[in-house]
Amino acid sequence: MADRRHLYRALLRESVRASIAPRATRPHTIAASFRALFAHDAAEHFDHDIQNAVTFMRSQRTHKELLDRYNPLHDLTTEERIRATARRVGLNMPIAPDGEGEK
């Protein structure tokens, strides 16, 4: 029972950390669904599957944090990435003749 409680809390903790919505506006249906899932007698591989899901969610979060830290340009568009790269070496992008470039 204690192992299952630990798995439930770990799964809930990782889902909260993965959420992008503020805590006050976050729907409570996810926690209710997890509670219902854990309330039923599960199959023999249930604990192992939940542990795999927790590990996957934790790994995804860590991967995103590392991408943000070591590759800050990964979520920019191509044009924004080129502009940021030029600024990094001390240059500015030229103004396009049709007026779509940087001013």
UniProtKB/TrEMBL annotation:
<dbReference type="GO" id="GO:0033615">
    <property type="term" value="P:mitochondrial proton-transporting ATP synthase complex assembly"/>
</dbReference>
<dbReference type="InterPro" id="IPR039196">
    <property type="entry name" value="Fmc1"/>
</dbReference>
<dbReference type="Pfam" id="PF13233">
    <property type="entry name" value="Complex1_LYR_2"/>
</dbReference>
<protein>
    <recommendedName>
        <fullName>Complex 1 LYR protein</fullName>
    </recommendedName>
</protein>
<dbReference type="GO" id="GO:0005759">
    <property type="term" value="C:mitochondrial matrix"/>
</dbReference>
